[in-house]
Each structure stands twice: as C-alpha cells, then as structure tokens.
Amino acid sequence: MRKRFSKAKNLYTLECSFPFRLERLYGLFNLLRDHDYFPNIDKAGRLYTPLVMLPEPIRHFLTYHGEKLASLDLKNSQPFHLSLLFTTRFWGEKACRLSLKAIQPALYTGLKRTGVLTQIRDHVRKASSSPDVQQYIQLATTGTLYEHLVATYGEQHPSMASRGEAKQQFMVFLYFNPLEKHAVRYQAYRQWAADFPNVAHLLELIKQENHTYLARLLQALEAKLLLRLVVSEFVRQYPGVFITSVHDSLLTLDSKKQELEAIIRQVYLREMQRMPEIEMKTLCPENAYHDLPKYIQKKLKQQSG
Amino acid sequence: MKGKVLAAWDQQLRKPPVATVPQNFQAAKYYRFLPMLRKDTIAARDSFHVILSALMSAFGMPNFLDDNGYQEPRPLSTEFLKAVLGNDYCAYVDVLVNHDVIQLVSMQGQGRARRYLLGPHYRNQPLKLRPYKCERIRRQLRKAHREHLLSLKKLYMAYSPLIYHTWSPDLQLDEAGALTYYQTFLTQLLTHA
Fold this sequence. Notes:
The complex is a heterodimer.
Chain A: H1 2-34, E1 40-41, E2 47-48, H2 50-53, E3 62-64, E4 67-74, H3 77-82, H4 88-91, H5 100-103, H6 105-113, H7 116-127, H8 131-142, H9 145-153, H10 163-175, H11 187-195, H12 197-206, H13 213-237, E5 243-246, E6 249-253, H14 257-272, E7 278-283, H15 285-290, H16 292-304
Antiparallel strand pairs in A: 1-2, 3-4, 4-6, 4-7, 5-6
Chain B: H1 4-14, H2 27-38, H3 45-59, H4 78-85, H5 90-96, H6 101-106, H7 110-118, H8 135-167, E1 171-173, H9 175-192
C-alpha cells in the first residue's frame, strides 16, 4: 500500500514538474544560442557556465565547429583529492602551490585561530602512515573505493548496494554534520569509521568548526588542479583548442582527448605524486541514447530517495 | 523621487537596443571582452548590446585590448554617450565619463546604481541628489571601480581560456536532437515511475 502510494506520489511529482523541466531546458538553450552567458566563480574557485547547468546527457548534443567533443572525468574525484590532505605539506605554514594557505587563505586563518589546525597537523603527522589511511589512499587512487564499499557494506546496508548508491553514500560521509553521527541513519558511517578510524577522525576534525569546510576544501583543490593547472598547461601546449570544465570533468575536442589525458596525468603526478583514474567518453547522440536507461534509473532513485 | 531618474532608466532598459554591432568588429576579441563586462550585468541584458556597441564604436576593437587581452578602456565623450544611449542616461554620464566603461555597465543594475550613488546603507532610499553634483559619488565610483577592476582582472586572467571558448560561436548545440532526447527521457521516466 505504502509502495503504491509512493509510486503515485512520484508520478504526480514528475507530471507536475514536467513543464518546468522543459522550460528550464528551453532557457538554457536560449542562453547557448545567443551566447548570452554569465560566468560565475564560487568561493571554492569553481567555474559556473550554462554548460555546467545543462543536464549531463544533453551535453552529448554539443559540437565545436562541427567536431565532436569528448569528456574526461576523474573517477572518484573528491575521495582522490582527499588523499592529499594526509600530507603534512598541505597543512604547513608555507604557502606552496597545493597548500591550504595558498588555496583557501580564509579557511586557513579560521582553522588556525581556533587551534584546530594544530590538532589536524598532529593527527596527520601520526596517522599518515597508518594502515587504514594507506588502504584508503590506495582505493581512491585505483578508483575502486566505491566498489570496495559495495563489497564490504553492501549486504548490510541497502544504501550501498550498487556503485552509484555507494558513491552517493560516501558523499554523505564527507559532507554531513558529524554532530549527527549517532543518528540511526548514519549507522553505515559509524561502521565505515570503525574500519577507517584515522580517515574519519581527520574528516571530523576539519568539520569541527563548520561541516561545510571539507566540501569547500575539496572543491577548491579540484578547481586548483583541474582549472588552474591542467587547463592552463593544455592551453599553453595547444593554444586555440576548445576546452572547458564541468567541475570534475573537462570537455575538449574528441581528437585532442589523448593529449588532454596525458596532461592530466602529468600534472597530477607532478603535484600529488599519484595519478587518478580517468574515464574518457566521446560525446555523441548515440552514446546519449545508449546511456538513457541508466540515466532513467538514476533519476528514479533520486526521485524516490 | 524614487526616482524619476531610475524610472526613466528602467524604461530605457526595456527598450530594444538602438545601436547594432558594427560590421567590422573582430569576433574573437569581442568574445574575449565579454566576460569582463558581463560579470555584473546580469540584470541588464537588454541594455548590454547598446553599451557594447557604443564602446566598440568609440574605441574600435583593435586597440581595445593589449597583448594580454586586458586593458583599461579610455574615457568616452559625453556627447557620444548621449547620442548613443539617449537622454535618460545623461544624468549619469557626467559622473561616469571620466571613469571606466566597465563601471558604466555595472551601473545599469538598479540596486547597484543606488548602492554606488548613495552607499550601502541607502540601498532602498530614493535618490535625492543629482549624481553629477556629488563629490561623494565620484569617490565611491573610484573605489568601486578599483575593486571591480581587480576582481575582473583576477577572473579574467585565471579563467580566460575556459570562458573564451565557452563563449565562442563555434560551440553549437543541436537543439532539435537534444529536445527530442529530453522528451523521450521524460516520457520514459513517467512510464517507469
């Protein structure tokens, strides 16, 4: 009965939102057609353009001078960037290129003033070589973190039954308010925190003052590496070739995707001493239709969840 | 007097552009220049092309940007602006004529204009002074202008490659295909729900 009610409710919500969704899409089309954009940059340094707002499958219908585009996604992007937080250099006094002081000076000052920065430094110094941190870094680097979550916790927690769900759940681990961690709905987090105590403790330390700090920090790291370093290197080597960003992925010409991939690897190896897993996709309508059932499932889960 | 000036301004903003883009402008530089202007002009899209056309006619694009793609524009003549923008803008032109054109574009937003003219605490107050008589306005404009230029420069220098390409007319969306896809998606979503 409850299921039937929830199904009817979903249908009703969808039908109601149908015209609004289309209208929003039309609005985006108009912006793209007229090149009437207004770039915006948030506190973390991420760039927003209408391309970012465009639904993911619709990007398959974009071309540049008639040429197909390709997207290069960083797999496990934010968990991967999180592994950088286990280096003492990141939290140091010196404002080197990838340090908190350089990328988020306001956050650095805030954490320093409250004394949390000292606690974080102590923790990182002690815990960076512990087995759970090393295991986490390995999982994040090989792009198998979500698969690991499914295999380990999938049976007990239906919220981590598939890769997509595990991803969503891990984002909750990263961004929820740790003051609520004893609530029933965060049982999965408590179990994960017991297996990765040093990782969880670092997350909680960063979120101690304000639980949005971690999100801002990871987004800033992502923007610094992808937008500032990778894109500028690409533009230097291939001036005039199309490139733009959609947060954790970059769009370029299909014919230049190998070159961009090489630059991403090169930059990450230089800056983080490890390489992320990259997922390359050619953007074309056939691929959009091919992924349609998956996209529908994803949206249905979001609707019901 | 909430304004007569602002009301007239509003009316002017709703009019279609009176000037058109000159035929001889260089498309690439036009698009490079856009982000610098557009950051604070979301509220004033209609008037944007008027201003831009005026700027381009006044300066001529080739000399407008330096090799780094960034340069402080030179002042416009009052007569020219009056001719292009119409009489409703005149009250502001005298204040703005010795300042930056970017500032001029920023002034198009009503709230912003009010804040610049009367200060942040007078956002909702009616305008009581003729702007061109007020030294305070000049001071505020200069300050806002400096900050604005700095933020724009930062934005532009850091993200110009991305913004430049996103702005390019070569980036096209197959609207018909995208719409068919999206309708298919929504229909199937409804069927599955």
